[in-house]
Every structure is written in structure tokens, then in C-alpha cells.
Write a structure and sequence with these properties.
With about 475 residues, the protein is an alpha+beta fold. It is about 60% helix and about 10% strand.
Length: about 475
């Protein structure tokens, strides 16, 4: 008894042992400031605290995003991965608790006269019912605890991966929707240009019949019409491909989600995004959170690998009743039955298995550190690129709008000079081609500005609240 009292404090201390290394968050391998963000842009808040509906405020666009979040298969897989990780964590957590099973059995044996059962023999019956716990491990060195902790961090990582998948899906859906609007508006522009050129062809044909226009003018006018028809066919195909791309992201074909009245000009997206310091932004990005949880899981696995070098103690026990008569099994006539079987397993010679497993766990942690740092660096690059592009795209759009206006005025003057007989038709057609190209570029520049805001939403961490 004295020996037991002496050993008890050491047992209690051992129960609290945790063999995993202390977790330390790696230093950020990036500068403390963005390369291109102005002080006026910096904000202490974070984008993840804002729901996506506050970014994408157009009702038509919100309906498209809602449909994608409800039906997209990639996001559904990400959500199911979270459920699977949650179930695995519950399994690991259950291993830390005592498991009790109820069991009942009966045995029947025929006894002969030689066994003292009389000349006719007899049948001996035995019934038993008990509660048992099998191989419950005393987690003295934290092996089971660390395995459970690793499963928990893996679960958190899959949750972060789900958030990353949702942010990516929203950004891809919005960009696909914007591309559909661009191609459709370009197609409408080509339709108007074709109608204008067909009228010009009719005019040139009439003038050529009375000798006021040359065959060269007629051929040039016909070529201008066919050129726009080629572009119209191309953009008609683009529009159909855009519809198919959206259907894949949305998860279904639904024409009601693509209204005819939708346009780039009416598509509103929040422009004043909160831009905090890198340490605030990058650590809250879903992909960085995923990488850090994977790092914590790898850290816990080292603790489990270290614990494998130490003894494992398991307890098996049962308590119940036994009787030769089934009717007396749960009465005072039944005899009490119990068993208690402690077992200790001490690793002595394992051919280096435990050492190799520990080495593997430490390498996996180093890999996780590298992945975490890479996620930080990749996020820093993406944000810097988007911030730089935002300012330059605004300048590009303003200049493109001025260019389109100038090209339209030049075409008006050139066409008037042709009708007045001061210039050839070729001058008017060249001016018309230049105007069409500038108008197409203006539409695309507006898409780039909107798409840049969408990219900023994504690279700053996105808001996943619905």
C-alpha cells in the first residue's frame, strides 16, 4: 500500500504529459506593407466580416450567385468533405472515452454418467450477462489526445477549404456573368453596326448604278458588311459558350437567371473595399487558414509519434451476473461475476519503425510550414497585383471612353465628307472600323474594371456570409 501511495503522484503527473512540440506561428515571409496601397485606402476592418451580398448588390447578379451556391457540385464536394472530417474527429474523440458494451451468452453441455450425471445423463445450462469495457487505453503520454487534436485541426482545415471554395466559386460565377454581358453587348453592338453598314451598302449600290460610285466603293462596302457578319457569328458562339459556362457553375440551365435587361452599366459591385495591413488580411484568407490548420495537425502528429516510444497501458474489465437458470439470471439467486485485466505494452525492438514514423511526422510538419509560407507569399502577390491593376484599369477605362467618343466623331465627319463627295468611301469605312474597335474595347475595359473588383474581393479573403 505504501508503494502505491508513493507511485500515485507520478502516475497523475504522467497522465498530464503531452509529447507534442509547442506550436509557434511562423513569421510572415512578406513585407509589412503593400507595395501599391495608398494610406487613404488602408482600413482596419476586414473583408471577411462583410457578406457577399453587400459586395454584389445587383438583384440579377445575386440570383445567379445564390443558384451557384445552392447547386454547384464542386462546392457540394467541399461541404461533404467538411462533414467527413467532422465524423473522423468524432471517431478520434471517442477513443479518449471509456466504451462500455452489454453482452449476454449462454452455454449448454450434455453430461454423461461418467461425469456424475446419472445413467441417463443430463444437460448443464449456464447463462451470463455483463457490462464490459475492452482495451481502454490510459493515455499517459498523450498519444490518443494528439491523434484527436490532429483530427480536429484537419476538420478546421476542411472548413477553411470549404470557405475558400465558396469564395472562388462566387468570384468565378461573377466573372463568368460579366463575360456573358460583355459578349452579349458586343454582339448587340455588331448587330447595330451591321444594320448601319447594310444601309451604306444599299446607298453605294444605288450610287454605283447611276455612276456616282466606283466598283471599288461597292466592293469595299460589301467587304465591310461581310466582315461584321463574321464577327457577329464569332460573338454569337461566344454568347452560347458563356451560357454553358454559367450553367456549369450554377449547376443547372435556367434562362430566367439571364434577363435581357441586364447590362454592364447596371451591374453594381462595391468598389470601396476595406484594405487592411498584410498581417490582418493574409492570416484571415481561407487558403492561409487552411494551411495553418494543416500545420497544427502535423504538429500534433509529432506528439503522437513521440508517444509511441513509451509504454501503452490498456484496461479490460467486465461485471455481471451468472446463473444456471435463465429465470434467475437477474435475481438474487444469480451469482456475481467480474473480471479485470490490465495490460502493459512496452516497445523494445521494432526495427526502427517508431523512429522512422517520428522522422516522417517531423518532415510532414516542415512541408506544412513551407506550404503555409507559400500560401502567405502567394496571397501577398495576388493582392499587390490587384491593387496595382485597380488604379491603372481606371485610367485605361477613362482613356478608352475618350477614345471611343473621338472615334465616333471622326466617323461622323468622314461619312459626311463621303456623302458630300469630298472623300472616298474607303476613308469612311476605315473610320467606321476604328469606331467599332474603340467601342468594343470600351465594353471590355468596363468588364476589366468590374472583374478587378471581383478579384480584389477574392484575394482579400472574400466575405462568405449569406
Amino acid at each position: 500500500m505504501k508503494t502505491l501511495h508513493f507511485a500515485l503522484p507520478f502516475v497523475l503527473i504522467a497522465v498530464g504529459c503531452d509529447m507534442s512540440p509547442d506550436y509557434k506561428q511562423p513569421e510572415l515571409p512578406v513585407p509589412s506593407e503593400w507595395n501599391t496601397a495608398d494610406d487613404a485606402e488602408r482600413d482596419s476592418s476586414h473583408i471577411s466580416a462583410i457578406g457577399w451580398k453587400e459586395f454584389f448588390t445587383s438583384p440579377e447578379l445575386q440570383a445567379v450567385i445564390d443558384a451557384a451556391l445552392d447547386n454547384n457540385r464542386d462546392l457540394r464536394i467541399a461541404v461533404l468533405n467538411v462533414e467527413a472530417a467532422r465524423a473522423l474527429y468524432r471517431i478520434e474523440k471517442a477513443d479518449q472515452l471509456l466504451q462500455i458494451d452489454a453482452a449476454a451468452n449462454s452455454s449448454h453441455q450434455h453430461l454423461t454418467e461418467a461425469e456424475g450425471a446419472g445413467p441417463d445423463g443430463r444437460t448443464a445450462n449456464h447463462y451470463q450477462a455483463n457490462l464490459a469495457s475492452t482495451a481502454f487505453e490510459l493515455d499517459l503520454f498523450g498519444r490518443v489526445h494528439n491523434e484527436s487534436e490532429a483530427a480536429l485541426e484537419t476538420f478546421f482545415a476542411t472548413e477553411a477549404a470549404r470557405d475558400a471554395a465558396q469564395v472562388t466559386l462566387i468570384a468565378e460565377t461573377v466573372n463568368a456573368y460579366l463575360q456573358w454581358l460583355v459578349d452579349r453587348e458586343t454582339l448587340d453592338l455588331l448587330q447595330r453596326s451591321l444594320a448601319s453598314r447594310e444601309k451604306s451598302l444599299e446607298l453605294v449600290t444605288a450610287r454605283q448604278e447611276i455612276g456616282l460610285s466606283s466598283k471599288l466603293d461597292l466592293a469595299s462596302a460589301q467587304a465591310a458588311v461581310e466582315s461584321v457578319k463574321v464577327s457577329r457569328a464569332i460573338y454569337s458562339r461566344f454568347v452560347e459558350e458563356d451560357r454553358n459556362a454559367l450553367a456549369l457553375l450554377i449547376g443547372k440551365h435556367d434562362e430566367s437567371l439571364l434577363p435581357a435587361e441586364a447590362s454592364l452599366e447596371n451591374t453594381t459591385i462595391l468598389e470601396d473595399l476595406p484594405i487592411a495591413l498584410p498581417s490582418n488580411v493574409l492570416l484571415k484568407r481561407p487558403d492561409v487558414r487552411e494551411a495553418e490548420h494543416q500545420l497544427k495537425s502535423a504538429n500534433a502528429n509529432i506528439g503522437a509519434a513521440r508517444a509511441a516510444f513509451f509504454p501503452r497501458i490498456t484496461l479490460t474489465g467486465s461485471v455481471g451476473f451468472a446463473s444456471n437458470d435463465l429465470g434467475d439470471l437477474f435475481t438474487t439467486e444469480a451469482a456475481g461475476a467480474w473480471s479485470f485485466i490490465p495490460q502493459i505494452s512496452i516497445p523494445i525492438f521494432d526495427n526502427g519503425r517508431n523512429a522512422a514514423n517520428l522522422d516522417y511526422s517531423e518532415v510532414r510538419k516542415n512541408i506544412a510550414v513551407a506550404r503555409y509560407e507559400k500560401a502567405i507569399q502567394n496571397g501577398f502577390r495576388e493582392v499587390n497585383n490587384s491593387l496595382a491593376a485597380r488604379r491603372l484599369i481606371r485610367e485605361q477605362l477613362d482613356a478608352q471612353r475618350r477614345l471611343a467618343s473621338a472615334r465616333e466623331e471622326a466617323y461622323t465627319l468622314a461619312h459626311a465628307r463621303y456623302e458630300a463627295g469630298l472623300d472616298s468611301l474607303l476613308e469612311s469605312l476605315i473610320a467606321q472600323d476604328d469606331m467599332l474597335a474603340a467601342q468594343q474595347a470600351e465594353i471590355d475595359a468596363l468588364r476589366q474594371e468590374l472583374s478587378n473588383t471581383v478579384t480584389l474581393y477574392k484575394v482579400l479573403g472574400g466575405g462568405v456570409l449569406r
